[in-house]
Amino acid sequence: MALILTEEQSMLRDSARGLISDKAPVSHLRQLRDSKDETGFSRELWKTFAEMGFSGLLVPEQFGGSGLGAVEAGIVMEEIGRTLMPSPFLATSVLAASALSRGGSEAQKSQHLPGIADGSLLAALAVDEGAKHRPLQTNMQAVRSGNGFRLNGDKALVVDGHTAGLLIVAARTAGSAGEKNGVTLFLVDPKAKGIATERTIMVDAHNAARIVFDNVEVDADSVLGEVDQGYPLLEGVLNVGRGAVASEMVGLSEEVFGRTVAYLKERKQFGKAIGEFQALQHRAAQLYIDIEITRAAVLKALQALDAGAASAGSAVAVAKARAGTTATLAVQEGVQMHGGMGMTDQFDIGFFMKRARVCQELFGDSNFHAEQLARAKGY
Amino acid sequence: MPDLEKADLEKFRTETRAWLEQNCPPEMRKPLTSNDDTFWGGRNAKFSSEPQRVWFERMRDKGWTVPHWPKEYGGGGLDGEEAKILRQEMAAIGARQPLTSFGISMLGPALLQYGTEEQKREHLPKITAGLIRWCQGYSEPNAGSDLASLQTRAESDGDDFIINGQKIWTSYANYADWIFCLVRTDPAAKKHDGISFILFDMTSKGVSTKPILLISGYSPFCETFFDNVRVPKSHVVGTINRGWDVAKYLLQHERAMISGMGERGVGRPLGQIAADSIGADEQGRLEDAVLRSQIATFEVDEAALVAAAERAVDLAKAGQAHPAFSSAMKYYGTELNKRRYEILMSAGGIDALEWESERSHGGARPRAWLRTKANSIEGGTSEVMLGIVAKRILDLPGA
Q: Is the ipTM of this complex over 0.85?
């Protein structure tokens, strides 16, 4: 398959870009932040997302979605990255839709997927427990109790956890932290007794929560996939999420870079545009090259995910690791080259820097993914 | 893509795989270990082994020394998709290139674009058949990064030019049969406007070469001298005084070639090569944790570059490529190759310091390490590449 977008995919990109740049430029995020909006995103815009078919992009057609794949999810995420639009798309349309369509029973799919497709159901994936993303270290306990399980433990960085109508929770039904065997995924009602959700205001003004589970009872039907065998399902879902976040970082990097190059052409010092200085030209050129190479790596990973290739895991590790370092460089150069203006809250560049930091941590940073690659290659 | 076409491509893949399986000798599926493993062709070419000869001749007869050139010039006539499949299938079994030459990677594309029909018929089939080995007369002692300031003169004398001057860093000039050369045909014009691109036989009277000993202990480059060399004007490619257009076009291909140097994502992972000399802990992790992380980061970047190279080809095929993008790839590919060899030297430790012993294959690793330092100089330095990206792609002022 050619490593470029097809005509249909280019059309999807254009329509996503048109909508997002029009309805949710960076000022949209700024307004939500400054007004301390309780939802943290625009429900009205989410409705439009649903009408345009974006919310159900990964939902199979029989459940009301478009049945598309990781490449298409990445296309929308990239556009989201350009304007930093806070949106349920990642948590609901990418992670939850993937988890349900890959691991769900027919009953679970019929119950939840149509709601995701029509925009009425928001969902969140609860995985992380410690300071760093370590899914294998999942230690939240799910002990058999009556006909079901009792959940105890804490989850952090649950994207959109404060607004979700459905939680997908990774917990340990057997084995101990560090073992693949014994991880199980559960579908949990966030209103269930024993759940305490704290919305965490994040550096990037996007949405996440810490959730405490205190003797939360769930029935056996709430298991997503197989008891004790949830890890491969979780890993597959996380990989789609990683590819999506990598795409967001490509969009973010390219946007910051575009703004920075424009500034280099316009800002004058010593009687000339600062873009005439070779010290800046070469750094701008290096960053351009970095972004282009990362873009290729990310598209490669998304295509591998859609093809179900054996190499998909490694390709995703490469993509997420590269996207993290590229975005980090892009925002740092962006602030530096904008000089004092880049340090002001009034200027948008800082928003990109903050979001890049969060995207790095989401589902494993560059170090985590380089480590995964090293292990996969046996050294 | 229409299903019929897809089916045809799958058929092509199956047939190609079977043909390679049957025709590529097992010895030609092993990684290169010495310079002799690369066959360059030419009047004085010698095969270093029987399997090398067999493999070259079979591929030549199939037109697959240059699979994507038209059949009438000795190529394989494959379209972009088919050529990609052939590359993939060759990579899958680790098949070596049957023929390597500057005729294939540099002159050929320029001739296909700018040459007359007669020039194409004269030169391209001799390139695909490995009969003539070419060298490149570009750099001069005072025209390096500022290539367009070159001073080698070509003065008109009836139907001929008389060429006088000196080139430097001429790769393998001492083995080459013909040269493609930039000469100044109009000294009065602005520096880019008085240059012509001309071809001549290295056995012409007045041509001499002198190899330059490099830090690697090898002499891949020469000084090349022209003392009243007589060359017919019909050997000019493109228009007289418009040779810079041809030169730039060729440089794009040269840069693409150099960015592809070095073995990428094939063979054993770097970390395992390092583990051979350094050792690993009970969990199989490299003993040197800092080197291990350098290798992992390197491999992330290498895999990304492999994807970018694939994408560059696909973009070009779709007509969406920026013509200066080869400069971007050249910059990144060469810097990455230098990183690779710094890691290999560190991984090899004391063993990688031996220069002559048989055990070290005559110091193969340190010599290769030193050779890579030229990658970011030859074909345009990294700094020149970044300047091109800044000017032509980013459109920065005054660049």
A: yes
